[in-house]
């Protein structure tokens, strides 16, 4: 029996689903339990407790502790004081689910969820029946995590820390045979003091990949070169959308990159797929390269891309009643914000683009990206930024149509009046954002 502390988080809910599938009795608790994770967990018949004060539920179980929990938490203190067995989510995953499988891990500041979902779908389309744990709801699967009957396990490899008692990045626990390093920028300022600290963690991941494995590395990312220069013992395949001499190369055949040519070993493959933007083309390229080293031929992988369905909140288009185009994206880092907006501008060149960004991540709220945030919004004709303080955003004069809101409710009241039938509206947040997408859909 296990009890999961922090069970409503995307990763820990995935752990719960995998444990349940493995026939393990699962219970869990979290500070707040609400849809969609509460609905998912209840559908799995997992007993949920809201809050951490009911410590009687912990007795006789192994406690799986999420990285949101810290010393001082009532359940954590009870676990330690009563010498209950405890373990982190990533370590539990390796010891109980993925350790006997061939692991394919996808790491990077951006694009982990999308690239992991693409890779899992390519393997599924090839009848490999992979297992996976993806930090979002993949469009081609009913669940975000499953054990799978095949030999492969795809994992979204997060660089965030493991637990209060293990400050290494989660991904050092996964022991992949194939690891994708998609990109690397400064993020998670609440746990990393600077970019070099993140590079060190990425190098720890590199150190765990065996010499008979493969590293799939983005040649367009200079920070990844710094990581490899620290030492590498594994063969590397480089992928690029800039350098045609890379092992894997992709070139867009139209502005939205929904039609592109993939080149490998001198052979061209034509791809038609639903992905918008060169950043997603790059994600697809990385996934095809990783799948190739899992035994999938390039042609079959490219064919699978045509039927790929993007995960929720990854440039997800919503139906509306008022004639405007409404998109939702997870973007919360200036680089991702800029690329997403530029992509939509190319897809809708003759329409007004309204960007709505919630500063929700710890890094954004700390003001780390204050100098790059406004330039990232420049592709939008009008930009609304929510949860703003003076330390979070600078150089406001650079965007004449920048509107700041202290709360989501005020932002919604403003944009519901502003939106016209032919507009394109992009909502960006890594959280629920006060239900603003649903409110706009029903506007």
Instruction: Tell me the structural class.
Output: alpha/beta
Strand order of the largest sheet: 8-7-9-6-12-13-14-15-16-17
- Helical content (DSSP H or I, runs of 4+): 25-40%
Tell me, what's the shape? globular
Number of helices: 14
Descriptors:
single chain; 443 residues; alpha/beta; ten-stranded mixed beta sheet; 23% strand
Characterization of this structure:
The protein is of the alpha/beta class and 443 residues long. 31% of the residues lie in helices and 23% in strands. The chain is built from 14 helices and 23 strands. Helix 5 packs across helix 8 (278-292). The longest helix is centred in the middle third of the chain and has 15 residues, at 278-292. It is globular.
Provide a compact summary of the structure.
This protein has 443 residues and is an alpha/beta fold.
SSE topology:
Blueprint: E1 2-5, H1 10-21, E2 26-30, H2 37-43, E3 47-50, E4 62-65, H3 74-81, E5 86-88, H4 89-98, E6 102-107, H5 112-125, E7 131-133, E8 145-146, E9 152-156, E10 161-163, E11 166-169, E12 178-181, H6 195-208, E13 214-218, H7 222-229, E14 236-240, E15 248-252, E16 259-264, E17 267-272, H8 278-292, H9 298-305, E18 316-318, E19 325-329, H10 334-347, E20 353-358, H11 362-365, H12 370-376, E21 382-386, E22 402-405, H13 408-418, E23 424-428, H14 436-441
Parallel strand pairs: 1-2, 1-4, 2-3, 4-5, 6-9, 6-12, 7-9, 12-13, 13-14, 14-15, 19-23, 20-21, 20-23, 21-22
Antiparallel strand pairs: 7-8, 10-11, 15-16, 16-17, 18-19
């Amino acid at each position: 029996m296990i009890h999961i502390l922090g069970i409503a988080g995307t990763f820990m809910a995935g752990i719960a689903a995998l444990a349940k599938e493995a026939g393990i009795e699962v219970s869990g608790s979290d500070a707040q339990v609400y849809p969609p994770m509460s609905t998912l967990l209840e559908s799995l018949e997992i007993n949920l407790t809201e809050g951490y004060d009911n410590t009687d539920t912990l007795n006789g179980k192994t406690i799986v502790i999420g990285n949101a929990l810290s010393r001082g938490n009532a359940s954590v203190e009870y676990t330690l004081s009563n010498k209950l067995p405890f373990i982190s989510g990533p370590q539990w995953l390796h010891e109980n689910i993925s350790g006997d499988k061939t692991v394919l891990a996808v790491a990077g500041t951006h694009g982990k969820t999308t690239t992991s979902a693409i890779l899992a779908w390519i393997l599924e389309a090839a009848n490999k029946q992979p297992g996976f744990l993806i930090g979002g709801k993949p469009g081609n699967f009913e669940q975000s995590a499953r054990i799978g009957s095949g030999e492969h396990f795809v994992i979204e490899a997060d660089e965030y820390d493991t637990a209060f008692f293990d400050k290494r990045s989660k991904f050092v626990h996964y022991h992949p045979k194939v690891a994708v390093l998609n990109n690397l920028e400064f993020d998670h300022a609440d746990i990393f003091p600077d970019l070099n600290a993140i590079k060190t963690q990425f190098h720890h991941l590199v150190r765990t990949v065996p010499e008979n494995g493969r590293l799939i590395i983005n040649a367009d990312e200079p920070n990844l070169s710094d990581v490899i220069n620290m030492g590498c013992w594994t063969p590397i395949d480089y992928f690029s959308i800039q350098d045609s001499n890379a092992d894997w190369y992709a070139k867009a055949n139209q502005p939205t990159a929904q039609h592109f040519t993939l080149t490998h070993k001198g052979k061209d493959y034509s791809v038609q797929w639903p992905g918008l933007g060169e950043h997603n083309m790059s994600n697809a390229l990385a996934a095809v390269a990783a799948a190739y080293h899992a035994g999938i031929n390039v042609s079959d992988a490219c064919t699978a891309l045509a039927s790929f369905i993007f995960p929720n909140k990854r440039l997800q288009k919503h139906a509306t009643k008022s004639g405007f185009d409404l998109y939702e994206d997870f973007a919360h880092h200036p680089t991702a914000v800029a690329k997403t907006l530029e992509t939509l501008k190319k897809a809708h060149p003759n329409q007004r683009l309204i960007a709505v960004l919630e500063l929700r991540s710890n890094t954004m709220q700390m003001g780390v990206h204050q100098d790059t945030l406004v330039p990232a919004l420049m592709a939008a004709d009008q930009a609304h930024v929510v949860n703003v303080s003076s330390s979070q955003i600078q150089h406001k004069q650079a965007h004449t149509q920048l509107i700041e809101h202290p709360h989501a409710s005020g932002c919604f009241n403003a944009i519901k009046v502003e939106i016209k039938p032919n507009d394109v509206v992009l909502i960006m947040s890594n959280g629920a954002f006060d239900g603003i997408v649903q409110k706009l859909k029903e506007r």
